[in-house]
Design brief:
binds cytidine-5'-monophosphate; alpha/beta
Length: 242
Amino acid sequence: MERFEPMVAIDVATKEEALNLFDELAADTQHTPIVKIGMELYYAFGPGIVKQAKQRGLSVFLDLKSYDIPNTVHRAMQVIGKMGVRFTTTHAAGGTEMLKAAKAGLVEGAREAGLPAPKLLAITELTSIDEHILKTEQHVDLPLIDVVKNYAQVAERAGLDGVICSAQEVKAIRSVTQPTFLCVTPGIRPDLSVHDDQKRVVTPAQARELGSNGIVVGRPITQSKEPIAAYQAIRQAFMEGE
Ligand code: C5P
């Protein structure tokens, strides 16, 4: 099974903090950590922040969750395809036509730049959406897990590489998708007593056992006094088992 290096969510407010974390993580010369750059950082500092990470030899997961009409998403993804990032995201709720346009845009952009195409991961339902919201606001009468499974299948049929999901959802998603379809999971805590604002968490080793292809880890690394040591311990547990 394909397994990626832990993806470190760089959810910090200043450029200085982001660059410090990049420097710390780049000090691991044996592995290539993947940094997850989200909307906050990207909207504030633009493509330069992606360049800064890449210049240090880090891989980039550009988590911008695109969601618009197919033509707009296609063009936006062409731009992302040229940036040399390893992963990016879009909303499965955008529909098959938008998802296909997203994938095509990435492939075209990457080809023009002579780069490998980034892997495209779908957001199924945001974890902030619960069954009550699903029912009363979206008028969807199905259990949440069925909605997640359906969106995973829609994404796979549209040619996407995988989904972002909770580790607890991996088994259900695997039951309806091909074995090569990727499940990347946030909500990871090496110490289960520290939840922060995450409601349900698993350890890196549990994520491995549950079949995650990749884990997204933020605060346990970024707020650690020794980010690189935290990264390496998490990496070891996830990549190699304990
Ligand atoms: O600090 P922490 O490890 O909780 O960070 C997790 C990262 O994964 C954050 O960037 C968060 O936005 C993201 N994420 C999540 N849950 C989801 C989707 C994304 O925690 N369902």
